[in-house]
Amino acid sequence: VPDPELNEEIIRVIALQLAEIGDQLDKEIKARVVNDLVRHFLNENLSGEEITRHMSEAVEGLARAIPSGMEQEKAMLVLAMVLTKKIVNTMPSLLQRVFSTTVNYISQQLHNYIVRMV
């Protein structure tokens, strides 16, 4: 049985690393990208799948500009979380929809990476 305290410490270290990367990437995300995503989230005619696709396209587009020294999957994970934060800061009423979409995106696109990371 894995040691719960060790697992908690590992998760804490991973979270700290992701937060540091997020702070760096936060400056690279242009307001236009955030505003475009806000517009999609506000469009109630778009399905959850369509919004997840828009989120995925935004993350992948931003990830292409990431320095080659950073793991692509790690960058995509952090970008998804930073985009979520920026969208919710721009339009707090979207919190539930943005959070659900981000969780779906991460589950679909980055599940294996997260499992390997932990």
UniProtKB/TrEMBL annotation:
Cross-referenced InterPro entries: Bcl-2-like_sf, BID
One Pfam entry name: BID
Record localization: Cytoplasm; Mitochondrion outer membrane
Cellular component terms per the entry's GO annotation: cytosol; mitochondrial outer membrane
Record GO biological process: apoptotic mitochondrial changes; positive regulation of extrinsic apoptotic signaling pathway; positive regulation of intrinsic apoptotic signaling pathway; positive regulation of release of cytochrome c from mitochondria
Primary location group: cytoplasm
Membrane-spanning parts: none
Domain of life: Eukaryota
Keywords for this protein: Apoptosis, Cytoplasm, Membrane, Mitochondrion, Mitochondrion outer membrane
Coiled-coil regions listed: none
Name of the protein described by the UniProt record: BH3-interacting domain death agonist
Organism: Pelecanus crispus
